[in-house]
Amino acid sequence: MLWLSSGMACLLAARLAAIWLCLSHRYPEWRLRRLAEGRSSGPLAFGMLHANPLFDGQGFLDWHHPRNRRERIRLYAVGAVFLALALLVFWGLAAAVGGM
Question: Is 14 exposed, middle or buried (0-12, 13-18, 19+ CB in 10 A)?
């Protein structure tokens, strides 16, 4: 069970890092709009919107519009790289702790 929860933590961290790296240029405009609407507007809310577009109905159609295809592909590619790095670090730490 610890392996599963650690793997999920690696996945979430990699996904949020990729979102922030690829989409941070959208954050200031998004934050101002959310503040004007009186809704949560922090970095975690921004990450959750793009990690799960159903989190915010306004982001779903825009994110899946064909004009955003390149941005989605780049986000998923960077996310895969971050996930691989996170899992390598996790396995390295697990091997180091297991070897002690």
Answer: buried
